[in-house]
Amino acid sequence: MIIDIHGHYTTEPGQLHTFRDKQLAGLADAGRKPATAELGITDEQLVASVQPQLKFQRERGSDLTIFSPRASGMGHHVGNEAIGRDWCRVSNDLIHRICALLPENFAAVGQLPQFPGAPIDNCIPELERLVGLGFVGINLNPDPSGGYWKSPPLTDRYWYPIYEKMVEWQMPAMIHVTGSCNPAVHFTGAHYINGDTTAFMQLLQGNLFKDFPELKFVIPHGGGAVPFHWGRYRGIAQDMKKPLLGEHLLKNVFFDTCVYHLPGIELMAKVIPVDNILFASEMLGAVKGIDPETAHHYDDTKRYVDQLKGLDEASRYKIFEGNARRVYPRLDAQLAKRGHAARKAVAKEPT
Amino acid sequence: MIIDIHGHYTTEPGQLHTFRDKQLAGLADAGRKPATAELGITDEQLVASVQPQLKFQRERGSDLTIFSPRASGMGHHVGNEAIGRDWCRVSNDLIHRICALLPENFAAVGQLPQFPGAPIDNCIPELERLVGLGFVGINLNPDPSGGYWKSPPLTDRYWYPIYEKMVEWQMPAMIHVTGSCNPAVHFTGAHYINGDTTAFMQLLQGNLFKDFPELKFVIPHGGGAVPFHWGRYRGIAQDMKKPLLGEHLLKNVFFDTCVYHLPGIELMAKVIPVDNILFASEMLGAVKGIDPETAHHYDDTKRYVDQLKGLDEASRYKIFEGNARRVYPRLDAQLAKRGHAARKAVAKEPT
């Protein structure tokens, strides 16, 4: 089966946006607060709203999308912590309902009610709730200030309480920023990619995985700038007397394939071990158009992976399914329960 | 000849650091201010200090390095504007002296006395001084706040006064941030690369080169994440109804080859037109070690360019010399005056 590990719910029904408007309007005028978190969205509306994703799954040949709320919509820097908590719950609940309605097509990943300056411990109740609802992972925002980078690096003890629970509950995190409120930093064109690069460098500087050997992070968008500058990162780690990156980071850090042209995916496959690459398209994400050079959608990333030369069957399985089942053990368990057995572990292939 | 367009003076004599210490100590205790900007560095000391660079030029086979003060040393966010102005002048003066002593080996690029929140107009006197001293370009910092991105984007009219003078005086700018004072953002491993990516996206969003068709920017470190995500940027531009990137940006925006492994340079040569690639190594820069996979220095980037397959002689000339002479017209004039004629313009090659 083919698992796309990076999809956001970017086709939400209008009622969700209306709710958010009322919620934020309520900051200025309490009379405008939404009376209830009931959005009035029916199951039929939810199923209708994800038809574009289902159509792309069929057309492009993927089976299951790991699905989370719109990344730019998380808005951790917006409003106050209490409003953020409600918003987080409402957003996650929609994901939960969609995944319950279409379990063969979607697996749930949730956002957390992070807020700039607030203790990360405040996110544990929602994490626990997500585990109970069958979510398989979370999105963790390394910069809840929305483009100003005011949080301590991911290696700081600030983050340890959530890591302890992530490990205990086998919940991996995609490191994913939300929208940018910084006019100098465009969200999908700069902040997302910078977030990936910055997070990787934070991890490189520290020794986090000595304290949390079971912790797993996915860095999206192909790892930001990291594979393109793989020599730079190998060299900086060496200058810092860190172990080789394979030992230092790659047991815990994975990259997705949200890179929207063949040369980028080719580079990635050259420098990143196949055990660390997870298929993803972020479909209905940052780039929606058709590439005039190929006459295919930019974000039809399966085509690029399919065109990789010298990718043997075992490696292909890892990128499209095996690595995802290893990084997301709760997904693996759900799939096994539904009769989709994983292949037996195979020896590591050279890349 | 082979021109390396990106070298910083990272082997400064100790007197420069002593001066800076006294200067900043003077903020807390006026009695510690340096009495004079005379550093007491002799010409012999200057020449001795750049022997490592000269050795690498000889060993690696480059001829001339475009040389500017240490990037992380610019420290635009440090102290106050008056101290920054003195520091800028002292730093640029050392570059000037080195280039006067060794004109066959170094050409001068200067820093500007930018300060967070201060009008960019305040940098014009130093720019004019640099022109008078024979500098061939400048480093322009898109984030003088040092990692918090508090300035308006490069397309904002805030920057226009310096652009007007850059065009008038034929001074291109390398878009280069300085050190990061943000503990979440490592300088060479995140801030530099993010700065490149962010600047490119700012330019993509705007229409700056409609107002300044002669303005020229070099984005260093291979353009940050940009070539790796070339499909993403082409797609975002398309979604924004911008012209094709070749038309929209590539008459004015150039990338250097400071990418420290062969697969990165190969990717770059695949997606970026050869007219937009300028050879550079940033030698004695961010990564100083020897790559155990190749037994050569990571930053010996000439080796990677030399290994590019299918690079014809005309393209090779462009990357190593021709493009630099086109982007830095004052350098071209200096070289011509010294008897190094440029080749006649050749028709554009397909990449």
What can be said about this structure in brief?
The structure is a homodimer of 351-residue chains. Chain A has helices at residues 14-28, 43-49, 51-60, 81-101, 124-133, 160-168, 187-205, 208-211, 230-239, 245-248, 262-271, 301-307, 313-327, 329-337, and strands at 3-9, 64-69, 106-110, 137-140, 173-175, 217-219, 253-256, 277-278, 290-291, 296-297.
Question: What does it look like?
Answer:
Two copies of one chain form a homodimer. The two termini of chain A are 22 Å apart. The first copy, chain A, is built from 14 helices and ten strands. In chain A, helix 11 crosses helix 12 (301-307). An eight-stranded parallel beta sheet of chain A has the order 1-2-3-4-5-6-7-8. The longest helix of chain A is centred in the first third of the chain and has 21 residues, at 81-101. The radius of gyration of chain A is 19 Å and the shape is globular. Chain A is α/β, with parallel strands linked by helices. In chain A, strand 9 (290-291) and strand 10 (296-297) form a beta hairpin. Chains A and B meet through helix 7, helix 9 and helix 11 of A and helix 7, helix 9 and helix 11 of B.
